[in-house]
Hints:
- There is one protein chain.
- It is elongated and about 95 Å long.
- The protein is built from 18 helices and 14 strands.
- Helices cover 46% and strands 15% of the residues.
- By secondary structure, it is of the alpha/beta class.
- It folds into three domains: 3-94, Orthogonal Bundle (Arc Repressor Mutant, subunit A), CATH 1.10.10; 100-210, no CATH class; 214-386, Dna Topoisomerase Vi A Subunit, Chain: A, domain 2, CATH 3.40.1360.10.
- The strands form four sheets. A six-stranded mixed sheet has the order 9-6-12-11-13-14. It has a three-stranded antiparallel sheet with strand order 1-3-2.
- The longest helix is centred in the first third of the chain and has 16 residues, at 49-64.
Amino acid sequence: MTNYKKQLLNCLLDKYERSRSFTGDNKRSQSFSVKVTQLFPKYGDEAEYGLYISINEAIAELERSEYITLSKKKNGVIDSVTLNTHKLSEIYAFISRTPKADTNERLLHLLTMYANENEVLAAYCQSQIERIQNNKKAEYFDGDFEEYENILKVVSEIFDIPEETYIRDFSVKVFGDSKVFEKIKHKVTRLLFQYGDFPQDETILEDLNIVKNPGHVYIKGCGIITIGGQIIDLSVLKGDIAISSVLLKSIDKIKITGSRVITIENLTTFNHFSQSDTFVLYLGGYHNSHRRNFIRKIYEQNPQISYYHYGDIDAGGFYILLHLREKTGIRFVPYQMDADTLQQHSTYTKPLTDNDRKRLKNLMNSEFSDTVTYMLEHNCKLEQEALDIE
């Protein structure tokens, strides 16, 4: 089979599979044609006589097989070819192409099978079933059924990881192979972010206890920690210390000697932050179960003090704050995340992206509405690094 024949038939089948005739919604008979020069631009070039002969031979063979009909111009030049929809089964077999109807049937089976595994899959699978029914492509499916089912399988199991687990170990647990998850993790995180409840896509895996290396909590300021009987007074240290997630469970006691706790989103800001009467935490950009348990322990042993969160003044910063509250049960107060701060540092603001605007509009009826309104009206957002903390 020449490449020209396969190209022609694939083009015609694409047109057919995108049509209302394919879905059965069309009440009138449709035809599916393509101009030869549209598919092969050099076909009409007199300098490409060899190409002209080869394409005509390919079209002639397809016509003899009754896969197409054609319309000719003068001197043997072919204007367009039209698909014979009565020969669809033979045509699919001739070019070894799986009919879209078969693909859709297999996809619907998988989606139905995984639809009740958890809330994210329920939302995703229902959406994809509707897309297929409307003759649209299923998201995150690129024609590889093995990969696609692996994605669904990961999402079905990823919420049941109670302890920090290395990416390789998670892959072995789910697939019996240390490398499979690495190949699909980007599609998995995009799906989880799109259909789940996560403040940002970059830290979803860590939030669900799947890590490349053990994480750390960086802390400094007014606090005394007891670990395995050892007492560490942070207030007498000139810098911060990092406690690995492995050690977090070994903390016996933590006493805050200041009047407030502040969690900080950005490491650079954490390093420069220096205020008296304050205990400061940098959570490594995310807060999985170990870190949340650590924060809860602080709150349980120090309920009388104030709790703040300091993040970027953008959609991600607000969602991280809301997520932190939801997962810890602590009413963190936003610190310097308001319109006044934006005005004071307007020189350093950045313009909003389309995605920023979309996410901010979802916060219009929240406690951040005044700040969000200012951001949308002035097309601005602000990263922590731009702020000069007094």
